[in-house]
Design a protein that fits this description.
- It contains 15 helices and 13 strands.
- It has about 400 residues and is α/β, with parallel strands linked by helices.
- The protein has a seven-stranded mixed beta sheet with strand order 2-10-9-8-7-3-4, with helices on both faces.
- Helix 2 crosses helix 11 and helix 8 runs parallel beside helix 9.
- Bound molecules: 4'-deoxy-4'-aminopyridoxal-5'-phosphate.
- The site of 4'-deoxy-4'-aminopyridoxal-5'-phosphate has 13 residues, from helix 5.
- Homodimer.
- It comes from Pseudoalteromonas byunsanensis.
- Belongs to the class-I pyridoxal-phosphate-dependent aminotransferase family.
Length: about 400
């Protein structure tokens, strides 16, 4: 049976990581993989997480199964984090299942959508996080794209986006990135979110919000602005969240799939279907990471510590955006890179071509994915000059 299989290409980012590891250039820089890095290039365990883990080690009483929805205290904490005060108003319409990471949340959401409407199409931004497309297709859903990033002007194709969304049939799902759009870093502003929320109500599609970077853009609350607006505007909403980035819990696989239904009775039915989906994929989520998040959010002291650490990460990213813009300008690069400072989160497209990307890798050991997406957090005070010189050289 196995001999019938044809080999599949490796994921380009994983390939890039392997090539980076083998590179012996002492000045090499990894701007490919999508994890936060500090000034030393490390992705450390947050202090609040370490404290919560120490507490858990002492106090954990059993390794028996948790339920299908995971840790219910964690689920409620996530609802508050996502919805803020709106969470209390909407409480009887909201149901959450803890999932293995944001990817798990998306896969559960995909299977849930399939159960709601076998013929549903999921509309995603052009471009989007590459895994979105494979995830939804793997669940047997159709995926179509709507215009989003303006490669030429480094902004949004907002009018084109709205025109496309007006044509989306009722019963389809529109995926929106809550903040820190991956891969472009280009987010909707408050006015644009209002237009989208109105449109969702008018057209009748179901919005699915992917929020994988809450707190990495402007603040925990501001990054959830669009999500909360939609939660108020529409009858039905799907939210897929991740604690990988904002809690630095990547490998512990912590996320959640939250459903907002039109009333409490529908919410119970939706929840029963959601849990049946969970049962047939992985039965129950892993306990450790969600317990850490719950411990942090249950303690004023640890929450405060986490907020400080999150602020640190966000300030560093935003500072690096300004630094990249200024350093490239200082090297006399003709192209305008001021857009980098206006975008959010870890990612932006440099907007350079394949040949220039290859030269950065070959001549300088600077690793960037083929789309020219860079992880801003890979830059530091120590390597910015080397990076800016290299970019200036390949753009000459
Ligand atoms: N959505 C987006 C847009 C992402 O960038 C990511 C992580 N790269 C995820 C979801 C999933 O994150 P995880 O499964 O690691 O929690």
């Amino acid at each position: 049976m196995f001999s019938e299989l044809k080999p599949l290409p490796t994921d380009p980012i994983l390939g890039l990581m392997a090539a980076y590891k083998q590179d012996t250039n002492p000045n090499k820089i990894d701007l490919g993989v999508g994890v936060y890095k500090d000034e030393q290039g490390d992705t450390p365990v947050l202090r609040a997480v370490k404290k919560a883990e120490a507490f858990r080690l002492e106090n954990e009483k059993t390794k028996s199964y948790i339920g299908l929805a995971g840790n219910l205290d964690f689920c409620h904490k996530m609802e508050s984090l996502l919805l803020g005060e709106h969470g209390t108003l909407l409480a009887n319409r909201v149901r959450t299942a803890q999932t293995p990471g944001g990817t798990g949340a998306l896969r559960v959401a995909a299977e849930f959508i399939k159960r709601c409407n076998t013929n549903a199409t999921v509309w995603v931004t052009t471009p989007t996080w590459a895994n979105h497309i494979s995830l939804f297709e793997a669940a047997g859903l159709q995926v179509k794209e709507y215009p989003y990033y303006d490669y030429e002007n480094k902004g949004l194709l907002f009018d084109e986006m709205i025109n496309a969304l007006k044509q989306v049939p009722k019963g389809d799902v529109v995926l929106l990135h809550a903040c820190c759009h991956n891969p472009s870093g280009m987010d909707l502003n408050a006015e644009q979110w209002k237009v989208v929320a109105e449109l969702a109500k008018e057209v009748g599609f179901t919005p699915l919000i992917d929020i994988a970077y809450q707190g990495f853009g402007a603040s925990l609350d501001q990054d959830a602005y669009g999500l909360r607006l939609l939660a108020d505007a529409v009858d039905e909403l799907i939210i897929c969240s991740s604690c990988s980035k904002n809690f630095g819990l990547y490998r512990e696989r912590v996320g959640a799939c939250t459903l907002i239904s039109k009333d409490a009775a529908t919410a119970d039915i939706s929840n029963s279907v959601l849990l049946s989906v969970v049962r047939s994929i992985y039965s129950m989520p892993p306990a450790h990471g969600a317990d850490i998040v719950n411990t942090i959010l249950s303690s004023t002291e640890l929450t405060q510590m986490w907020h400080e650490e999150l602020d640190e990460m966000r300030s560093r990213i935003n500072g690096l955006r300004t630094l990249i813009k200024d350093s490239l300008a200082a090297k006399g690069v003709a192209q305008d890179f001021s857009f980098i400072d206006k975008q959010n989160g870890m990612f932006s497209f440099l907007g350079i071509n394949k040949e220039q990307i290859d030269r950065l890798q070959k001549d300088y050991g600077i690793y960037i994915v083929g789309s020219s997406r860079v992880n801003v957090a890979g830059i530091s005070q120590a390597n910015i000059d080397y990076f800016a010189n290299a970019v200036a050289d390949v753009l000459k």
